[in-house]
Amino acid sequence: MTAVHPLAATAETTALPRPRVQPSGADDGLLHFPTGFLWGAATAAYQIEGAAAEDGRTPSIWDTYSHTPGRVRNGDTGDIAADHYHRYRDDVALMAELGLKAYRFSVSWPRVQPTGRGPAVERGLDFYRRLTDELLGAGITPVATLYHWDLPQELEDAGGWPARDTAERFGEYAAIMADALGDRVRYWTTLNEPWCSAYLGYGSGVHAPGRTDPAHALQAAHHLNLGHGRAVAALRAALPASADPQLSITLNLHQVRALSDSAADVEAARRIDAIGNRVFLGPILDGEYPADLRQDTAHLVDWDSLVQPGDLAAVSAPIDLLGINYYAPTLVSAGTGTGASAAENARNDAHGISDHSPWPGAEDVLFHQPPGQRTAMNWSIDASGLHDLLARIAAEHPGLPMMITENGAAFDDYVNPEGEVRDPERIGYLHGHLAAVHAAIAGGADVRGYFLWSLMDNFEWAYGYGKRFGAVYVDYPTQRRIPKSSARWYTETIRRNAVSRSAP
Description:
Helices cover 38% and strands 15% of the residues. By secondary structure, it is of the alpha/beta class.
């Protein structure tokens, strides 16, 4: 029997009014979301923009990584991707047709500040100005993410995220973006999934820049936290308080479950929770790194030297929202018996197979596939993990507003002879997870919105173009967009601000 690890099971206020579930006058068979709930979809710059060498953009670590033979399946790159850079007006029109209320996009750092230092390139900034204006003109709220993994290659050459200087450069970049878009954008996210940037980029090497040093991975984790703090300070300084800016970070928190109630398995879950979740939640929300995390990894880094005076005060600057990305729970046991070791584990966010662990200090923990349905990524489908995760955050940080900034699934979508893309599996996935969000809100979690991942099919990192997460199908040779049946279902969900009580 699977037992939930106690840490996983346990479950500065914003000026926004807290949405609450409103009971309907009669039982209409629907789960109604709070009035004002923000419905959107999300993308990332390198995954959709293309135009990799246009208008002054220089290579990011993902350009370098994807052009390195053997790194990405089929040798795919993001050079063209979904060509959103040239097609953004049509894409925004499609968003409006689908009824989206918000769009979460990321800014390509090397498009606006090619070396990661110095002045911005106005042609790069102009793209995001045009995109934001197009969104506002369509009645869609822009939600800007400053960093979704595309570090300028020159900063990587100077040391990358394991180098403290990168955090300082990130703060300067945040100030540039605040000055450029602060009159248009209210919602800002500093980092997307720093767990992936640190541990997949510098630990297992299955993401750019492809380095495999556990000490560097931990250094990167701290400097990403510090970069978040520097960015929050820069945004607060540049954005007018009268605009009530909403600042956040997006974390891919792991709903960690132990395989059994044994002390050894519960201890394994604690270790993964520490290195996967509390390494970010601790300093950002509580102003300190957990003592057990520091002890688990003391053989890899000297925390007293890594964390300098003033760092934790900067990292813990108040945020207005916590963004949460969720796809599947994480099931672990002690490093005995059968299972995939952390070094071999390619599930959840790992996106590839490596001989190096993305879990520094917990390399011998075993990972397990729960029974039941899986996505095309071989990730388990378990919406209860999202509910439990939201309940945990609500219990540990009462009153903290949250948003689901990514949730979705890849399936083997195709265009049928009628020219349609029917994806009932995705509809089922989305329904189950939205029902879980609704239950969490009813239980007291302050969840303000939901962003489907992804708006459209795109470059899926180390998987290239082989996995499709989009609600909109992209025919890459022609760049034709075809809304899938899940997109139409999502449109109706947004219109009703509700999902059915029963599965579709």
